[in-house]
Amino acid sequence: MADDDEDDCLLAQEALTESCLANNLYIVCDGEQLMDYLYRRGKYSDIDLSPRPGLILLDLNMPKKDGREALKQIKADANLRRIPIVILTTSKADEDIYRSYDLGANSFITKPVTFSGLVEVMKTIGKYWFEIVELPL
Fold first, then answer.
1. Whole-number CA gyration radius for the chain
2. HEC assignment per residue over 20-67
3. 68 with 99: CB under 8 angstroms?
4. For residue range 42-63, what is the model confidence (pLDDT) as tens digits?
5. Residue 57 near residue 1 (C-beta atoms within 8 A)
6. What is the domain partition of the chain in residue ranges?
7. What pLDDT shows up at residue 20?
8. Alpha carbons 82 and 104: distance in angstroms, whole number
9. What CATH number was assigned to the domain covering residues 6-128?
10. 56-58 vs 107-110, strand pairing mode
11. Under DSSP, is residue 86 helix (H, G, I), strand (E, B) or coil?
12. Which of 4, 43, 88, 108 has the lowest CB atom count within 10 Å?
C-alpha cells in the first residue's frame, strides 16, 4: 500500500485484519518509497522484508512522487507492469478516474468514509484479487 495518510494506512491494516484476510500489508508513504520498494533499493533491499507485491493499493495524492507518476513508471517497466494496481483514493474526479485507467490502473476505488465501509472494500478486494482472479507469479 502506498499512501501518505497514516490514519488511512492504520485503518486499512485494521480492516484487513477485520476482514480475516491472511495477506501481509506492506506500507510506503509516497511514490518514491514505492519505487524503492519495488526496485529493492536502500532499506527495501532485503527480499524477505520487502517481497514482491501481489497487488498494489495506490493513493493518487502523495508527496514527492504522486500516485499518477508512480503508476506511469510501474506500467512502463516490463518487470513490474503485471502487478495489479488498485487506485484507492479519496478522489471522485472523472479526470482522475480516466487518467488512472489510461495509465494502466486495474481498478479505481474511492475510499469509503466509514471504517465498516473500508472493511467491506478490503474484503471485496481480497476476495476478488486473491481468491477469484488468476495472477501472474
1. 14
2. CCCCCCCCECCHHHHHHHHHCCHHHCCCCCCCCCCCEEECCCCCCCCH
3. yes
4. 999 998 888 989 889 999 988 8
5. yes
6. 6-128
7. 62
8. 10
9. 3.40.50.2300
10. unpaired
11. strand
12. 43
Distance, in Å, from the CA atom of 117 to the CA atom of 131, rounded to the nearest integer, reads 20
Residue 57: beta bridge partners?
86
Residues in CB range of 28: below 8 A, 6 or more apart: 1, 2, 34, 36, 37
Angle at alpha carbon of residue 128, lines to 101 and 65, rounded to 5°: 40
How many angstroms separate the CA atoms of 35 and 61, rounded? 15
For residue 37, what is its C-alpha cell? 520498494
* 3-class secondary-structure state, position 91: coil
Q: How many residues does the chain have?
A: 137
The residue with cell 474526479 is: 93
Query: pLDDT per residue over 115-131, tens digit each?
Result: 888 888 888 888 888 78
Question: In this model, does residue 35 exceed pLDDT 90?
Answer: yes
- Integer CA distances (angstroms), 72 to 24, 36, 57, in order: 25, 15, 14
Angle between helices 94-102 and 67-76 (to 10 degrees): 20
